[in-house]
Fold this protein.
Amino acid sequence: MKFKEKIKAQKLRRQGFSYREILKQMKVSKSSLSIWLREIELTEYQKKRLFKKGEQAIYDVAKRKVAARIKKTNEIMELGIKEVQLLKNNPLFLVGMALYWAEGAKNSTECAKLANSDEKMIALIMKWFREICKVPEKKFRIHIHMHSLHCRKDIIEYWSKITGIPKNQFYKPYIKKTSLGQRKNILYNGTCSVVVNDKDLFRKISGWKIGVQEIFDTSCSSMDRTKGF
């Protein structure tokens, strides 16, 4: 039986079939094919054909992934829109949404992020992330931006206390060189960025934004729904 399969596999290979194409016709392992076919040389035409098919396969896989991502994004955003009806009477939800809408990340990286130098705003958005967004503590990351003129050793400790996030979840601070003409503010503690690398959360927040918009603006069109932030 194995001999007949080997002969058939070699015949198909000489005709220019790829390993994948052969495996669709035969129930053998890829390792067996590798041994049976390793000495068979393909023509230049056959090599070019297989190369083109490989490129097409890569394109097809990428296209399916994009379609799946769009489908998942739309599903999560629609769920977020519906959840607004359950959350709209919660003051923390509305205040947090207003802050995020104004100050939060709106880019295509799909990362939930808000940056500000006001410690009270950061404390409030942390409460919103925890209680409304249900972000697990281990998913929080903090990134501090500061000018070299205001660089102090205790700034990380300061923002760790404000956010309630341990220092081992802080990124390395970004320190911008300060111009000589800039005045030093001894009370300035840099800018704190709260980062949650969660695409699904970003998509849900985008859905919440649309849901809130629909409450206060009934003219919100279906086209607006696709834009998120």
Observations:
- The chain has two domains: 2-64, 87-225.
- The radius of gyration is 28 Å.
- The longest strand covers residues 140-147.
